[in-house]
Design a protein that fits this description.
Elements lengths: L6 H13 L4 E4 L3 E4 L16 E4 L5 E3 L6 E4 L10
Parallel strand pairs: 1-5
Antiparallel strand pairs: 2-3, 4-5
Bound molecules: zinc ion (ZN).
Pfam families: zf-CHCC (PF10276)
InterPro entries: Znf_CHCC
Protein name: Zinc finger CHCC-type domain-containing protein
Length: 82
């Protein structure tokens, strides 16, 4: 069964954004993509069109659709770096 196009997905996306703060994803690659899907929650069918982004000299990039932040491991924005 599929959702009808439009409102239900949008309502669910808004719900998801309200219920969950933006994620931080650590990556080894300067070039990342985001489609809003997640491996963790059951929301993999939601999300947004896939977009590719380049991590710049700040060491991170944020998705303009869902605010997920991609942090380069070991880069300037990696708070976990030793
Ligand atoms: Zn995204």
């Amino acid at each position: 069964m599929q959702f009808p196009a439009g409102i239900p997905e949008r309502a669910l996306l808004i719900h998801r954004l309200m219920m969950n703060p933006p994620e931080t994803v650590y990556t080894d690659s300067h070039r990342v993509y985001c489609d809003g899907a997640t491996d963790i929650r059951a929301g993999a069918a939601l999300g947004h069109p896939r977009v590719w982004m380049e991590i710049d000299e700040k060491g991170y990039v944020e998705c303009g659709y869902c605010d997920r932040r991609f942090v380069l491991k070991g880069g300037p924005a990696d708070q976990q770096a030793a």
